[in-house]
Write a structure and sequence with these properties.
Blueprint: H1 4-24, E1 27-30, H2 45-59, E2 65-68, E3 73-76, E4 82-84, E5 97-104, E6 107-120, E7 125-130, E8 133-144, E9 150-158, E10 163-168, E11 173-177, E12 180-184, E13 189-190, E14 194-198, E15 212-213, E16 219-223, E17 226-230, E18 242-246, E19 255-258, E20 261-270, E21 278-281, E22 284-289, E23 292-293
Parallel strand pairs: 1-2, 2-6, 3-6, 5-7, 6-8, 7-19, 8-20, 19-21, 20-22, 20-23
Antiparallel strand pairs: 4-5, 9-10, 9-18, 10-17, 11-12, 12-13, 14-15, 14-18, 16-17
């Protein structure tokens, strides 16, 4: 009988316990200490990514940490963004992607926006989560300053001659070249080819419609923001109807998750993305808690 075994076990237990505590201690990091602050009106992309890389270079990617953004608005522009080659299911394979933030090969990390607005510019993949384990992303609103969807309101509909006159929403900018209407934005120009029609007062999709053809060829500008489209015939588009017109591209989702394990997306709102709100592929055990694709509020002037 070996009477030393129980004593050895008792001696070892405290070391195992304290070693476990050391491994599980979570470090909370306020990104404002790295100069990442909200509401500056300037491009935060390079600053955010520099801060994240600086943190990882100091403590590695395996120690449990919480990265906290002070609540407010952060603007992310393509300048200073990451460039990545991602093959995203059900999206355009137009590599390389311009990525606002990417967390790759991290373990035991939480990214907490604390209710912040992350506003993206141009054509970007806002957030990429690649080959992470035990990652939580929470309390973030994702939106774009200039969505690629062009919202218009029907003013007149001449169903006999097939002519529809519409008015662009106040935030929409456009150009007309060779009688073709192009929706324009920050570094992009797109011709809408289809749309969804909404009832003006209820914001519901017009009864018995789905994707519809839109009038962006053979157009002329009657005055600023007032466009007349020839050869656009659709009797269901009564005056007051709002149409969200889009081109046929789907480059990037709002959040992209690839080869993750134990991923949690909590209190995330995607108000606009040029692709899907979320695309997760080859991932085990993903939890969505309060994840929504939604307008900002009931009074949101956008219908999409």
């Amino acid at each position: 009988m070996n009477i030393l075994k129980p004593y050895l076990l008792i001696l070892l237990l405290p070391f195992i316990y304290f070693d476990s505590l050391a491994q599980s201690a979570t470090k909370s990091i306020d990104l404002s200490t790295y100069g990442v602050v909200p509401n500056t009106g300037t491009n935060s992309t390079a600053l955010v990514n520099k801060a994240i890389q600086s943190i990882f270079s100091k403590i590695g990617k395996k120690q449990p940490i919480i990265l906290k953004f002070k609540k407010g608005r952060y603007d992310f522009h393509p300048e200073g963004a990451l460039t990545r080659e991602y093959y995203i299911s059900n999206h355009d394979q137009d590599n390389p992607k311009t990525v606002g933030m990417a967390f790759e090969n991290c373990d035991n990390i939480t990214i907490d926006g604390q209710g912040s607005d992350f506003i993206y510019h141009g054509r970007m993949l806002p957030i990429a989560l690649i080959e992470n384990k035990n990652l939580t992303l929470k309390n973030i609103h994702i939106d774009f300053e200039r969505p690629q969807i062009c919202q218009v309101k029907i003013l007149q509909n001449d169903t006999i001659n097939g002519t529809i006159t519409y008015q662009t929403a106040p935030w929409v900018t456009y150009t007309i070249k060779d009688s073709i209407f192009y929706n324009t934005g920050e570094g992009w120009q797109l011709r809408p080819t289809s749309g969804i029609a909404f009832e003006e007062k209820t914001k519901r999709i017009v009864y018995n419609t789905s994707d519809i053809r839109v009038g962006t060829t053979k157009v002329k500008e009657l005055s600023q923001g007032i466009i007349q489209a020839q050869q656009w015939k659709n009797s269901k588009l009564i005056p007051g109807t709002v149409v969200a017109m889009r081109a046929g591209f789907r480059p990037s989702p709002g959040v992209f998750v690839h080869k993750g394990k134990n991923i949690r997306l909590e209190n995330i709102a995607v108000h606009y993305a040029e692709g899907m709100g979320l695309l997760a592929q080859l991932t085990d055990n993903i939890t969505l808690e309060g994840f929504r694709i939604a307008l900002r509020r009931d009074q949101d002037p956008r219908y999409f």
